[in-house]
Write a structure and sequence with these properties.
The strands form two sheets. This protein has a six-stranded mixed beta sheet, with no helix packed on it. Strands 1-3-8-7 form a four-stranded antiparallel beta sheet, with no helix packed on it. The model has no long low-confidence stretch (mean pLDDT about 95). With about 120 residues, it is mostly beta strands.
Length: about 120
C-alpha cells in the first residue's frame, strides 16, 4: 500500500523559508506524477504545486514565483521549497500521487501532513 510521510514544517516568520519533504513508498515513484497540497482550517484541500514524472511543473497562482517543487526519484522523495512565506500560507501540507493534468490525487490514503505556520 502507498505510504506518504511528510516532514519539514514548522513555525516561521513572514518572509522566511522552509523546505518540505515527502518520502513515498508502495508505488513506482518514478512513474508517478506528484503533488503538494495544503489545507487551512475551515477550507478545502487545495493543490499548491505539482510535478510530472517527466519534470513538468505546475503551481497555484498564489505561490507562483515563491515556491519550487522538485523530485529525487532515486530517493522516492518530492520536495517543496517555500520562500517569501506569508501568513496566508499557514496550513497543513500534504503530498500525494496525482492525475495529470487535473492534479486530482489518485490515492485515497493521505499521510499525516506537516504543519506550516507563518506568524510573527
Amino acid at each position: 500500500q502507498v505510504q506518504l510521510v511528510e516532514s519539514g514544517g514548522g513555525l516561521v516568520q513572514p518572509g522566511g523559508s522552509l523546505r518540505l519533504s515527502c518520502a513515498a513508498s508502495g508505488l513506482i515513484f518514478s512513474a508517478n506524477d506528484m503533488g503538494w497540497y495544503r489545507q487551512a482550517p475551515g477550507l478545502q484541500r487545495e493543490l499548491v504545486a505539482g510535478i510530472t514524472f517527466g519534470g513538468i511543473t505546475n503551481y497555484a497562482s498564489s505561490v507562483q514565483g515563491r515556491f519550487t517543487i522538485s523530485r529525487d526519484n532515486a530517493k522516492s522523495t518530492v520536495y517543496l521549497q517555500m520562500n517569501s512565506l506569508k501568513p496566508e500560507d499557514t496550513a497543513v501540507y500534504f503530498c500525494n500521487s496525482a492525475f495529470f493534468p487535473s492534479w486530482r490525487a489518485n490515492n485515497d490514503r493521505w499521510g499525516q501532513g506537516t504543519q506550516v505556520t507563518v506568524s510573527s
